[in-house]
Every structure is written in structure tokens, then in C-alpha cells.
Amino acid sequence: MNPPSRPKKSFGQHFLHERRYIERIVNAISPRPDDFLVEIGPGEGALTFPLLAAAGKLTAIELDTDLIPRLQANAADVGELSIVHADVLKVDFTALAHRAGVSCLRIAGNLPYYISSPILFHCVEHAAAISDMHFMLQKEVVDRMAAEPGSKVYGRLSVMLQLACRVEPLFEVPPGAFRPPPKVDSAVVRLVPIAPEARHDADPDRLHTIVKAAFAQRRKTLGNALRQWMDTDAIRQADVDPKARAETLSPADFVRLAKVETAS
Ligand code: SAM
């Protein structure tokens, strides 16, 4: 058996080693034998093996080739581990669920922090094929995801995530729980996609454009920040004050802005 590989900075590798945090994450996920579990970034398997033991099977997506033989060998007596060697951002979760013949996936992972926001946006795109997600992230990112209007950290991530999912911060994890310790505090969050019938019906591209433009210049009034996309009359039609700033708007306000018919 190969010895454990040295954690690679370029892959955002910080391996979780403290048993009590591993147990808390697995308990929060509470895997059942009929779940179709997908883990993003199994690393050396800190979460993989307890999840596999509880669910009996698991699909893990790992980019680092060097980690795969060890994962495969260690899984042999635990359960059915299927490893997808790929960049998670290129994995089509909807197609994965379809191929597996299941309506929904349960996704988990101690995410590589260097691409945590792109991974979150990628998962949101496939929210209809996901029943829940449990992620370890930088605490600062979890704070932004769960932030409410008026908070300093409320922004694009808060609005887009809250329009797609219920965001439930669970608990914090200190740097010492990882090898090597990251420079930041971490936190575990649960995301539960909003049922399709309860989701907003704005055009997703338009919504994204409006939210991005509004927060790109968060010190400006909406009238100024959205000038390229809609005029002040259109903003008023959405029942929003053009003199307001993006950070004071609720996610529902952004949906109304995205739904206003504009001349352009
Ligand atoms: N789950 C392990 C643990 O808790 O100890 C490892 C977590 S480590 C923070 C992140 C993992 O994601 C590493 O195994 C890394 O190789 C993997 N990874 C990094 N970039 C990835 C990508 N684009 N797609 C899939 N996995 C990736």
C-alpha cells in the first residue's frame, strides 16, 4: 500500500483528522442505505469511509489521481465505492442521477476552498436533482451564504443561494481539526433545495445578471448600478426604490426586478 500522499496546496487539500468533527458531519448527514450519496473531494477518505459504511455505496468525485488507488483499496471491505476521476465543476449531477436511475442525489464534501463558490453555483444549477447538500466551507463563506439584507456580508452569494436553497449553518470547525491546518476557520452548512413548485420563476440568466450588476457596485444606488440593464421606471415597476442600495434588497426584490419587462 502506498503511504499517505503529502497534502497538495494546489488542490486545496486540508485533510480532516479530528474524529469528533468527522462524527458530527456524518451524524448531520445521517446516511441511509437507500441514499445515493455523492462526495466531492474524498481526499484520504475521512468522510468517505464512515459514509460508505452507513450507506453501503457512495460515488466520490476526486481530481487528484494520486489519492485514488488508496481510496479504492481501503474501500474494499467497507462498501461499494465508485470513484469519478474528474473536476467536479465538469460533472453533470442531473445526468449522474439519471444514469443511476434515482430522482435525487445527496451531496456532501469538505470542499476545496479555492473553488468553493463555483462549486456552490454549479450545485445550484443542478438543484432539481439534489435532495440535500452538506458542505464544509470557510466560515466566512457560510456567513455570506446565510446573511440577511442589511448585513455587511450580504451579497450575490447570499441572494443566489437563498433563492435556490434553505441555508442552515450547522457548526464551526477550528483549523487544528485538519492536516495541514488552513489559515481560516471553517463551518459546516446544510443546503436543502427549494421544491420546484415553490421556486421563483424569473429567467435564471436575467436574475444572475441583475444580481451581479447590483452588487458589483454595492455603494451605488440601484438606479446607477443597474443603468445598463434597466431604467428607474422599470425598477419602480418592481416595487423597488431606485435610490436604494443592493444590500438592502431581499432575494424576492431581486426576483421582481428580474421579471420586469424592459424595452431592451
Ligand atoms: N474530504 C477530505 C477530508 O475531509 O479530509 C479531503 C478534503 S480537501 C479540503 C478537498 C479535496 O477536494 C481534496 O481531496 C482535493 O484533491 C479535492 N479537489 C480539489 N479540487 C477538486 C476538483 N476541482 N474536483 C474534485 N475534487 C477536487
- Corresponding CATH superfamily of the largest domain: Vaccinia Virus protein VP39
**What order do the SSEs take from the amino end to the carboxyl end, as H and E?**
EHEHEHEHEHEHHEEEHHHH
Q: How many distinct beta strands? A: 9
Low-confidence stretches: none
Q: Give me the side-by-side strand order of the main sheet.
A: 4-3-2-5-6-9-7
Q: What would the CATH topology of the largest domain be? A: Rossmann fold
Q: What average pLDDT do the residues reach? A: 95
Number of self-contained structural domains: 2
- Bound small molecules, deduplicated: S-adenosylmethionine
Query: What global shape is seen?
Result: elongated
**What profile does the largest beta sheet have?**
7 strands, mixed
Number of helices: 11
Distance between the termini: 63 Å
Strand fraction: 15-25%
Q: From the helix content, strand content and strand pairing, which structural class follows?
A: alpha/beta
